[in-house]
Write a structure and sequence with these properties.
2 domains, mainly alpha, 86 residues
Amino acid sequence: MQGNDAGKSKYSVKKEANLIKQNYLAQEISAQNITNQLKSSTENEKTEELKRKPMHGQFNRGLEIPSVDEEKSMVWLCSSGPKGVT
């Protein structure tokens, strides 16, 4: 009977499940970080490409001016009711 109890202390299904869960969560967090980095870099590339366009980049370039309040400008843009083609 004691031999069986000694084996229980070495191996536990609960411990094994916790290890698997920790590994899974670590991989999930890593995947989320990669996804967020890709989204961020794609968004930055699109914004930079838009800024380089003379006509379409005016609003974004204007936000870089120190005297322009970016938050108020974004609120104004959203509340002005632009059409889908804008």
